[in-house]
Amino acid sequence: MRNAPGDERIGAAATFGLLAAWALHDTEELVALPRWLRRNVPALRERFPAVPEAVWRRAESVDEREFAVAVAVMAAIVTAASTAGRLTGGRSAFYQSALNGFGLHGLVHLAQAAAVRGYTPGSATSPLLVIPFTLWARGRLRRAGVLRPTSPRDAALGLAAAAAATVASHAVARRVLGRRFR
């Protein structure tokens, strides 16, 4: 007999699966990003002259150590969100926002790859893992009756939260490594 809507349990696959999917995706970024930036920023600077010079300088200053520490900080954030999701049966607003932000950031990776007309770190796992996992997990939440209605405002907030977590992760990494902010 099938459970009634709302009775279906949200298991570890949908909650801690966020952490697993994030870890695989960020492994791609960890391996590729610092070298990709060093190799591509000069051409991107010429191609996109409207981007402020400070953005290009900041991108060029990210090295393997800083990026690894930032990824570790983000791991703590995603672990907390996944744990909140598991403990609340998927009802946690923090978990659901993190899930939405994860999926939307996958779309950002695809937009970046389209803008540069080629590979960008994160664009390989986004269509294969990030977006499918997010859609699958949201489907599980919906079938269980615990998915909060998502408005365009909620989507924008999820993406803004993902961006803020990224900025905060890099700020912590720079502080841990004793680097100045530029």
UniProtKB/TrEMBL annotation:
**Name of protein:** HXXEE domain-containing protein
List residues traversing the bilayer: 67-85, 155-173
Q: Which domain of life is it from?
A: Bacteria
Give the organism the record lists.
Streptomyces sporangiiformans
Q: Which UniProt keywords apply?
A: Membrane, Transmembrane, Transmembrane helix
Q: Which InterPro entries match?
A: HXXEE (IPR025671)
